[in-house]
Amino acid sequence: MAATPLCEAPLAALKKSLRDEFPHVKSSHLSEALAHSLGFRTHAAMQAAMVGPEQDRPFGLLQTQRFVERLKQLG
């Protein structure tokens, strides 16, 4: 598990890395799986949690198993 801040720049960089690793997976599926791996039900729920000043936002723990499970669910 790795901790990542719930801020736009780190999440965008993480998603770019994932797109390089999984070029055959739809961008929206990567977004949903990334949000799920951070403990959110959906990408929209993760975005809703990203409010207020960045320094006050929580960190999320990336859980690889949850990421893989969600990708499998999405096809």
Could you walk me through the main structural features you see in this protein, from its secondary elements to its overall organization?
It is built from 4 helices and 2 strands, in the order E-H-H-H-E-H. Helix 2 (27-37) packs across helix 3 (43-49) and helix 2 (27-37) packs antiparallel against helix 4. It has 75 residues and is mostly helical. The longest helix is centred in the N-terminal third of the chain and has 14 residues, at 8-21. It has one domain. A two-stranded antiparallel ribbon has the order 1-2.
- Roughly how many Å apart are the termini? 24 Å
Main beta sheet: 2 strands, antiparallel
Which percent bin holds the helix content?
A: 55-70%
Radius of gyration: 12 Å
* Biggest β-sheet: strands ordered side by side in the sheet: 1-2
- Structural class by sheet pairing and helices: mainly alpha
Order of helices and strands: EHHHEH
Residue ranges: pLDDT <50 for 5 or more in a row? none
- State which percent range the strand residues make up: 5-15%
Described by the principal axes of the CA atoms, the overall outline is globular
How many helices? The count is 4
| Count of structural domains | 1
